[in-house]
Amino acid sequence: MGKFSWVVLLLVFLALPGCGGGTSPNATGSPAAETRARPTRAEPVRLIAFVGSASKPPAQEAKAAYEKQNPGVTVDMTFGGSGTLLQQMTLEKTGDIYMPGSDDYMDKAEAKEAVIPGTRAIVAYLVPMICVQKGNPKGITGLADLARPGLTVGLAEAGAVCLGDVSAQSLENAGLLAAVRKNVITYARSCEQTQQLVQLGEVDAVIGWDAFQQWAPDKIDVVPIPLEYARPRTIPVAISVYSTHRGAAQRFVDFLTSTEGKAIFSKHGYSVEPPPG
Q1: What is the pLDDT of residues 195-226, one digit of tens each?
Q2: Does the pLDDT of residue 20 top 50, yes or no?
Q3: Of the options 3.90.850.10, 3.40.190.10, 3.90.650.10, 3.30.590.10, the CATH number for the domain spanning 128-224
Q4: How many CB atoms lie within 10 A of CB 201?
Q5: Which string of b and e fits 127-165 if b means at least 16 CB within 10 Å?
Q6: In the chain, where are the structural domains located?
Q7: When comparing pLDDT for 253 and 277, which is higher?
Q8: CA gap 98, 242 in Å, rounded
């Protein structure tokens, strides 16, 4: 065989798939095959949650725990008064999750058709209490004492904060609303601000939640309010009708109401079982 024939055979051999330097678009290891084999990354998910500040400490911890277990998911929480948050959510038509500080504001959200029916769930329970400075230096024993001359009282603002509605209703049930209002020197626009009033010594007492004592155990004591005047409330959660990530929002709701999620709330002094009575 001549030199020319050998050269032709060599060129044909090198052109065969898997031989020499030639590549087949379908061969394993080719750029096309590597593209098909490479796993696709899930798109990052950003959930927007409107959360009543009555549950701020455990909600922040639950957010961190959930995000650690679910890389790529971020839960942005806006805290404030439940009424203010509901108004913001409906006016801006945004948000994935609504978690007010009390069930009555979830009732309002449902009436406004701002949350998806059937997604409402209970995370924890709150019991109204009189919150006083550590050691109870003013000797407050009940709602009637809040009307004593010289006592300074702080209340949450009704209509903006669920606690404000609870406080007004409790005092009205006891026939003390007008008398106690004479001692009110300030109204707070969130549960967090209400708690800070007594924690920082700006007032002698506020009507707050039992969990406030756990927020600042070295600063706050609590005095019970009879159930005939103030009933316990729930911390509910539901998915907003404006949600663009309903599946991810449901998974976060499921986490909040799971054993792990409720353990976080319990650790912060919140009741996760219905209070007696």
Answers
A1: 999 999 999 999 999 999 999 999 999 999 99
A2: no
A3: 3.40.190.10
A4: 12
A5: bbbbbbbeebebebeebebbbeeebbbbbbbbebbbbbb
A6: 45-125+234-267, 128-224
A7: 253
A8: 11
